[in-house]
Design a protein that fits this description.
Layout: E1 10-13, H1 26-34, E2 39-46, E3 52-54, E4 59-60, H2 61-64, E5 66-69, H3 75-79, H4 85-90, H5 107-114, E6 119-124, H6 133-143, H7 147-154, E7 155-159, H8 162-171, E8 176-181, H9 187-197, E9 203-206, H10 213-221, E10 225-226, H11 234-243, E11 247-250, H12 253-261
Parallel strand pairs: 1-2, 1-11, 2-6, 6-7, 7-8, 8-9, 9-10
Antiparallel strand pairs: 2-3, 4-5
Amino acid sequence: MVAVPARRILNIAHRGASGHAPEHTIAAYDLALEMGADVIEQDLRVTSDGVLVAMHDTNLERTAGHPEFVRDITFEDIRALDAGSWFNEIHPERARPGFVGLRVPTMAEIFDRYDRSTNYYVEIKDPHVNPGAEGLFVDLLRESGMMEHAVGGGVLVQSFYPESLARFQAIEPRLVLTRLFSLIQDKGLIRDEMVETATYAAGVGPDKFNIDASVVSCAHDRGLYVHPFTADTDEEISRLLDAGVDGIFTNFPDRLAGLQSDGKG
């Protein structure tokens, strides 16, 4: 289990400070760390030429104006796309000139930029359509000199798919794994699966709507930390803190940091 100091709840920046900047860009990660995030999250996909890039969606339409799937396009072609202007168009009140022309980063570039100065939360998206992605990521940890940081809890690996976590465990059993649970997997199911989850994972990541004190207590009784996603309002964050969670994914890390500085968590 990741050691969490007394009531020091991990501030996990969901796709970076994605409420303030274009998600999964260096600008979003930089801003998250400036705002007090303890952890920055990366959703990873594999390009057609085998490069791990930070991208949530299956295709590039929403954030880069390109209709193709990430898996069907080369990294060179992805690199040519503007991954920042969309944010200014949708959020004019938070627009910045510097967001125009931002590029999709690789996980290697992210490690190179921040190294061990921060912590990471990584999810391989749709692992069933990205065969070998787990191995690519473990290879990157080794090649970038980040493996010891990872096994010490500095790089957490999460997935909705137990079979993907099993592949990670088989390749590198020292990795710290988090089992994600979606909204449709209700509190009862989550509690029922805690015993099995504890055999391979160090923690659980339920949807914020499926968190209450009983779920947290059940996880803690089995030695599992609880990192729900994704809480953005003060009310949502406060409810999760009151339930006793160990970390919170948020698009607004400044809000969680503010509540923590006020003594809430």
